[in-house]
Amino acid sequence: NAGVTQTPKFRILKIGQSMTLQCAQDMNHNYMYWYRQDPGMGLKLIYYSVGAGITDKGEVPNGYNVSRSTTEDFPLRLELAAPSQTSVYFCASSSIRTGMTQYFGPGTRLTVL
Amino acid sequence: GQNIDQPTEMTATEGAIVQINCTYQTSGFNGLFWYQQHAGEAPTFLSYNVLDGLEEKGRFSSFLSRSKGYSYLLLKELQMKDSASYLCAVDDYKLSFGAGTTVTVRA
Predict the structure, then answer these.
(1) Cβ–Cβ contact B21 with A under 8 A
(2) Span B35-51, mean pLDDT?
(3) What is the mean pLDDT of chain A?
(4) A105 contacts B94? CB cut-off 8 A
(5) Residues of B with CB below 8 A from A33's CB?
């Protein structure tokens, strides 16, 4: 199993550009999450999904969108990038089988200039 | 709302013991996770406490008191590779994370 994979690893955007951060998992987990982590801070939940076709907002959803058309994939869309979105983005997945323990991808380091 | 507090930094010597405290005030509670995060890497699972008491797993132990809103992670026989950030997270169907405690292990 590859676990949770994320692409790209690094990206630099200009203000106002858009991009999609990709996340995929091959563990057949129902639950998937997107977090952002700013320097010296904990992880903040952006969006989460409890299954294909179902998504919901987390703590900091503004400026982001998600979709979940399959169990495996959970892309995060940034529209009109702003410097405040400079952060490290982590995708995670879990299931009832794992006792809801979340398994994290390696992260995407995004800089908006 | 969620309020989760843990110390920002701790320093200890190789071979010593360090205790990282976490206090929480949350609107819901199913359990408490501890994750380890090395610099530049993703968090990895260490422990999950649902019931009050101590859970021991090798050199790492985690304690929970639900009535006091308190948990700690105990790291024994510290090794240099234990230098990392340790994140306390409350499980309320979603995870709410504390800011993390950076532990530095010195020779």
Answers:
(1) no
(2) 95
(3) 95
(4) no
(5) 94-95
Q: E strands, chain A, where? A: 4-7, 10-13, 19-25, 31-37, 43-51, 54-57, 64-66, 76-78, 87-94, 103-104, 108-112
Q: Any CB–CB contact under 8 A between B41 and chain A?
A: yes
Taking CB atoms and an 8 Å limit, are A107 and B42 in contact across chains? yes
Model pLDDT, residue B97: 92
User: Pick from A41, A58, A99: which is nearest to B94 by CB?
Assistant: A58
Map tokens 């998937």 to a residue.
A32
Structure tokens, A14: 């200009």
Letter string b/e over residues A54-74, b meaning 16 or more CB atoms within 10 A of that residue's CB: ebeebbbbeebebbbeebbeb
In whole angstroms, give the CA distance from residue B20 to residue B74: 6
Nearest to A63 by CA among A87, A32, A92, A31: A87
